[in-house]
Design brief:
Elements lengths: L1 H7 L15 E10 L2 E11 L3 E6 L5 H8 L7 E6 L2 E2 L7 H4 E4 L3 H4 L5 H11 L4 H14 L15 H14 L4 E5 L7 H12 L4 E5 L11 E6 L2 E6 L1 H22 L1
Parallel strand pairs: 3-8, 3-9, 6-7, 7-8
Antiparallel strand pairs: 1-2, 1-4, 4-5, 9-10
Helix pairs in contact: 5-6, 5-7, 6-7
The structure holds adenosine-5'-triphosphate and magnesium ion (MG).
The site of adenosine-5'-triphosphate has 11 residues, from helix 2.
């Protein structure tokens, strides 16, 4: 009798998250490079509109973002985006998930600025002429209409970053994954794009070292050596990370 009841009882594992249509899920995820473990996240569901990823250089922020769009696949476990596993549905993800690379040179693929920004609208099935018009209108709204026919390789680092962000916005993805989007932008452009991105209805997951912007986020995750060190509201996580940075910085000063 006891044996029969035991057989019928549900497994004593934690409630599993897979197949949930909303948000991004990590379940028992490990990512290794050669023989080194770079990321390990046992269980996580990101459903908030604004999620920030913070942490020291090399802590795993870019790796985590790349696992969310199938650019990297987990060595173990699974990552799902709105119910789509990144291994099985890798080809379906670009239509849903927009990705901004940390390095604009990894993103830019077309020779001119207008072609780069027109790619997203053209993918939605409108004519090449309409796509170009939309691209130019978007560039003009951001004060860079005169760049339309410039070679992307002739832009400065910050200008390239702006073109990449506009190209990403033009694709209208349902989730935006942004890897340090503002690192090279001047202050006026940074504030303009920050306001624009915060006004989007879509989910945004952003790796950033920009601590002035993070207090308005819904959730901040602090990664440390490939693991989640703290996960919560900005008011909880940011001071803890600042304290850590101060201690590490003071240690460096003392030993140098
Ligand atoms: N192409 C690669 N080959 C080997 N190791 C890599 C590669 N890219 C990243 N790594 C390693 O993976 C770990 C996580 O790197 P990742 O780029 O995710 O860190 P990050 O938090 O984004 O850092 P940063 O703030 O400098 O952008 C680091 O130890 C890094 O050295
Ligand atoms: Mg990075």
């Amino acid at each position: 009798m006891i044996e029969a009841a035991r057989r019928k009882a549900p497994p004593a594992s934690r409630p599993h998250l897979r197949g949930v249509a909303e948000g991004i899920i990590f379940e028992d995820v490990q990512f290794r490079r050669a023989d080194r473990q770079v990321l390990a996240i046992s269980e996580l569901r990101l459903a908030e509109r604004r999620v920030g990823l913070i942490g020291d250089n090399g802590s795993g922020k870019s790796t985590m973002l790349r696992l969310m769009n199938g650019l990297l696949l987990p060595t173990r476990g699974c990552v799902e985006v709105e119910g789509l596993g990144t291994v099985r549905h890798r080809k379906d993800l670009p239509a849903k998930v927009g990705f901004l690379f940390q390095n604009p040179d990894h993103q830019l693929i077309f020779p001119t600025v207008a072609e780069e920004v027109a790619f997203g609208p053209a993918e939605r099935g409108i004519s090449a002429r309409q796509a170009r018009q939309q691209a130019i209108a978007l560039l003009e709204r951001h004060g860079c209409g005169e760049w339309a026919d410039r070679n992307v390789n002739e832009l400065s680092g910050g200008q390239k970053q702006l073109v990449c962000i506009l190209a990403l916005l033009a694709t209208e993805p349902s989730i935006l994954l942004m890897d340090e989007p503002f690192s090279s932008l001047d202050l006026p452009t940074r504030l303009l794009l920050y306001r624009r991105i915060m006004a989007l209805p879509e989910q945004v997951v952003m790796a950033t070292h920009d601590f002035e912007l993070l207090p308005a986020f819904d959730r901040v995750i602090w990664l440390d050596e490939g693991r989640i060190r703290l996960d919560g509201r900005p008011a909880e996580v940011l001071p803890a990370y600042r304290a850590h940075a101060t201690i590490v910085g003071a240690g460096d000063a003392l030993t140098s």
